[in-house]
Design a protein that fits this description.
single chain, about 375 residues, alpha+beta, Jelly Rolls, Helix Hairpins, five-stranded mixed beta sheet, 8 helices, elongated, binds adenosine-5'-diphosphate
Length: about 375
């Protein structure tokens, strides 16, 4: 071929990155764009070329594959030279040779800068990933310490009482009360272990949704908490609107989500306090509200209460047990259900948590 003039329509790839072919192009008319693939996925625009510019010389000089892709943006006319033609032009025209040397050194500099920029980006991505790993590692170690502490307390109490019983010196009412204490502490350990397992599971398995009767679930939760409410002299009331439809969800997860709200409402209520659970409907939603008149939540910690392991263990002289898992479970369950979870609270006055779930539609 040596040389020829050719025309191409817009969007023609004249040179393709990584392809081996030895043609040099001088643009007589039209515009081109030069792009390069970065990190195997992203395409970056390197520059635009127009009449008077040239491309394709790198492959001829270095016998290398194309370093970038050149595509026509408009109708274009180019002068194409093969290797012999290209060599002849270089020999005969020092000004073209010079222009090419300057163009090549420019491109090399640009490539260097691009490589440095990419390296910088990579370095900062690595630093971020490392930071995240370190945070996760710290959270994991903190979690183990908290779990160990939380388990130790009931284990020691139960263990201590068992030793007393083993000595056989306790009888009558005293025996009953000691056995009750052991049972209560073992319950606490079981709840804790179940919570931790639930938390692991909920991240791994997406529940299958079904029609869920939230009235029944509320009744089950209230029954489960009768003992605890009585011990704390807290009254739990349930108010249910007429004809509450089924919600779309997973019954076990929703029971766990409501349990955390009721558990907290009783725990953070004052003695003789009152907790109200309400079931209502609003458009295509079923709403479950849990209201208490307890210690309330300060505005500065309100945004953090749903975080995993966030726990306030003290309010005035009162100490509160807990791992800070309950609300994070509730939030995760509600997110999985594409529902919403809202809270309104005033320190010293009480808190109201509302879960909103989609109604079950038989045909969906
Ligand atoms: P835990 O109760 O085990 O600490 P949660 O995740 O259930 O864990 O709650 C996180 C924190 O949110 C609690 O430590 C408490 O500070 C606050 N909180 C949750 N519910 C209530 C409530 N009804 N009244 C006051 N504070 C609450």
């Amino acid at each position: 071929m040596n040389s020829r003039i050719k025309t191409y329509p817009p969007q023609t790839v004249i040179c393709r990155e990584n392809e081996v072919e030895y043609v040099f192009y001088m643009i007589l008319e039209g515009d081109f764009e030069v792009t390069k693939t970065i990190n195997n996925s992203e395409t970056r625009l390197l520059k635009s070329l127009t009449a008077g510019d040239f491309f394709g010389e790198m492959a001829l000089i270095h016998n290398a594959p194309r370093a970038a892709t050149v595509r026509s943006k408009t109708n274009v006319i180019v002068l194409e030279l093969d290797k012999d033609g290209f060599n002849r032009v270089l020999k005969r025209s020092p000004s073209i040779a010079m222009a090419m040397v300057s163009e090549i050194s420019n491109r090399l500099r640009q490539n260097d800068q691009m490589a440095i920029e990419d390296l910088r980006l990579r370095a900062s991505e690595l630093a971020d990933a490392y930071q995240r790993l370190a945070e996760q590692d710290l959270a994991c170690r903190e979690f183990l310490t908290i779990v160990a502490h939380e388990l130790r307390r009931p284990l020691m109490v139960a263990g201590g009482y068992l030793q007393v019983l083993q000595k056989g010196m306790v009888t009558g009412d005293d025996l009953d009360s000691k056995i009750n204490t052991i049972a209560r502490n073992i319950d606490q350990i079981t709840t804790l272990v179940n919570d931790i397992l639930f938390l692991q599971e909920i991240e791994l398995v997406l529940p299958e949704f079904d029609a869920v009767n939230m009235v029944k679930i509320a009744e089950v939760v209230v029954r489960k908490y009768e003992g605890k409410a009585e011990t704390r002299h807290v009254t739990v009331q349930v108010k249910i609107d007429h004809n509450i439809p089924d919600a779309k969800g997973d019954a076990r997860s929703l029971e766990r989500a409501l349990t955390a709200l009721v558990d907290n409402a009783i725990k953070y209520s004052p003695p003789n306090g009152m907790v109200e659970i309400r079931l209502t409907t609003q458009a295509d939603r079923v709403l479950i509200t849990v209201e208490d008149h307890g210690i309330g939540i300060a505005p500065d910690i309100l945004p953090r209460i749903f975080d995993r392991f966030f726990h306030v263990d003290k309010n005035g002289d009162e100490l509160y047990g807990g791992l800070g898992i309950g609300l994070s479970i509730t939030r995760q369950v509600i997110q999985q259900h594409k529902g919403s979870l809202d809270v309104e609270s005033e320190p010293g006055k009480g808190s109201t948590f509302t879960m909103s779930l989609l109604k079950w539609q038989p045909l969906n």
